[in-house]
Amino acid sequence: MGRGMYNLERQEQIIAVLEKRKSISVKELAQLLYVSQPTVRRDLESLQQQGKLQRTHGGVVLRKRMRFEKYRDTGLNPEDLRRQK
Q1: DSSP 3-state assignment of 21?
Q2: How far is residue 83's CA from residue 80's CA, in Å, rounded to a whole number?
Q3: In this model, does residue 82 exceed pLDDT 70?
Q4: Rounded CA gap, 60 and 26, in Å?
Q5: Potential cystine with 35: which of 39, 46, 54, 56 (Cβ 3.0-4.6 Å)?
């Protein structure tokens, strides 16, 4: 399990950060996760291949559909939930 588990944990942390922030740079992610920038780039490459994020020049943003997946089980989209408040 070794390294693979660390990759998965880091990738989950990257997604969690992106759910709170609209975007972040590779440098900032490396500092937050205490890993090298090449390590972050490899994780971002993997997440992009899975369709979970979109890489930008020097950074990354969460794909819009990922933001809405958490509402899938409710049968509502975020706009519907805002209207109910």
Answers
A1: coil
A2: 5
A3: no
A4: 7
A5: 39
> Amino acid identity of 82?
R
d(CA 60, CA 41) in angstroms, rounded, equals: 10
Per domain, the residue ranges of the chain are 2-84
User: If pLDDT is split at 50, 70 and 90, which confidence band does 75 have?
Assistant: low
User: The domain 2-84: what is its CATH number?
Assistant: 1.10.10.10
CB distance 59 to 24 below 8 Å: yes
User: Is pLDDT above 60 for 62?
Assistant: yes
Instruction: Say how many Å lie between the first and final Cα of the chain, rounded.
Output: 45
Record the pTM: 0.70
Strand, coil or helix: 24: strand
